[in-house]
Amino acid sequence: MNKFAYLVAASALAVSAFGQGQINLNNRGLALVNDASGKPLTGTSFVAQVWYGASAGALTKSFAPSPFRASTTTFPGTWNPAAAGGPGAIATLDGFAPGSTVTLQVAVWDSSIAGVGAAQALAKAAGTGLSESFTYTIPTDPLAIPGGLEGMKSFGLVAGGGGPVIPEPTTIALGTLGAAALLWRRRK
Amino acid sequence: MNTKSLLLAAVVAAVGAVSGSAQVTSQNIVGYVRLSLAKGYNLIGNQLNNGNNAIGTVLNAPEGTTVYKFTGGKYVANSFVDGAWDDANMKLSPGEGFFINVPAAATITLIGEVSLSNNVNIAAGYNLIAVPLPLAGSLTDAAAGGFPAKEGDNVFQWTGSGFAAKSFVDGAWEPSAPSVKVGEGFFLQGAARTYTRNFSVN
After folding, report:
1. Where are the domains of chain A?
2. Nearest-by-CA chain B residue for A5
């Protein structure tokens, strides 16, 4: 077999083994996510979800959400895609072959708040976060280690959100007084 | 990548039975491989057997390290963050190569026994492997790597920023036979086979 035939055979192997592109979903060492006060975000109830598609107007696919790290972490502002339930550190971009460019956007929200999810984050609701869209070109070299989020810029949570509304003791006392007053007036 | 290695002398323990009627001899070679890693990506391999070869027992990696294995044509990543590996069950067996990305230049030490009998399974296509013994020299030299090259094999060695390729064509390596360092991992692209590299104390 001559050298050209080997080259063709090698290319065929590469194509068959690497039909779909891979992406590294870690943001550790890259741009961080901040809370509403500007500090790097921590807390395992917060999650980041990477959305992707052919253009910023067609981000139709997403990976499973990844939790942020605990408050004691060495790497605040980063999420952990390898955590249980997450998509894994390196994932496959469905429908995107090596050499193609994919557009991405990251949505962040607090999963401990009922009724708050990706839809609220994508709508930039208070207490959630949404990155600017950015692109990633999947390397054609089959031995290249995948990148992914190098184009992401740092972003923060939208102010005004937070946890569920918990009344302060004074509010509870005032409410109780008001209810008692209403009952007293009805009886009269 | 500067590689410094030391293979400790064989530890041969001869245990004589108290009764004097029987004698049991055990042999094992315990050693370590010390590798100087540059900041960023380094392509290394495990060449010592460390029990279950779980990543936490094979590597004493610094905080922020990420290891990339290449399995089934795809990379799998595992990071050491906040004092723990994301996947503590990941194995790094003798003869297995892997990328290691360190946040700053570091020296790591891999400790274990020299495995006397080694079979590295090679699948058709790309494989990230290492010589399963801490030996340096020509990859195909029987006294060093002992690798059974086949027509059409391609070896890709990491240069620190890319790969240098060498091919086995018409019974010879071109442009030259690949030479490996102790602790070095490399890609092999070729046909499926079993890479057997045994070691004898005698």
Report:
1. 3-187
2. B152
Say what the pTM is: 0.75
Alpha helices in B35-185 (DSSP H): 55-58
For chains A and B, count residue pairs whose Cβ atoms are closer than 8 Å. 80
Q: Give the closest of A3, A73, A90 to B82, CB-based.
A: A73
Q: Which of residues 2-61 of B touch A (CB under 8 A)?
A: 41
Which positions of chain B have pLDDT values less than 70?
1-26, 202
- Phi and psi angles of residue B57, each rounded to the nearest 5 degrees, phi first: -95, -25
- In degrees rounded to 5, what are phi and psi of residue A61? -120, 155
Rounded to a whole number of angstroms, the distance from the CA of A2 to the nearest CA of chain B is: 8
CA–CA separation, B34 vs B172, rounded Å? 32
**Residue A122 to chain B, least CA–CA distance (Å):** 28
Q: How many CB atoms lie within 10 A of CB B168?
A: 22
Contact B87 A82 (CB under 8 A): yes
ipTM of the complex: 0.70
Residue with tokens 């708040």: A113
B160 vs A: CB within 8 A: no
Host H or E run for residue A17: helix A3-17
Q: What are the pLDDT digits (tens) for B110-143?
A: 989 999 999 999 999 999 999 999 999 999 999 8
Q: Beta partners for A137?
A: A101
The residue ranges of every structural domain in chain B are 1-202
Closest by CA position to B195, among listed B137, B124, B146, B144: B146
Q: A72: nearest CA in chain B? A: B82
Distance separating alpha carbons of residues A113 and A166, to the nearest angstrom: 12
Q: How many other β-carbons are positioned within 10 Å of the β-carbon of residue A138?
A: 21
Largest CA distance in chain B: 62
- Residue of A13, A24, A93 for testing the chain B interface, max B β-carbons within 10 Å: A13
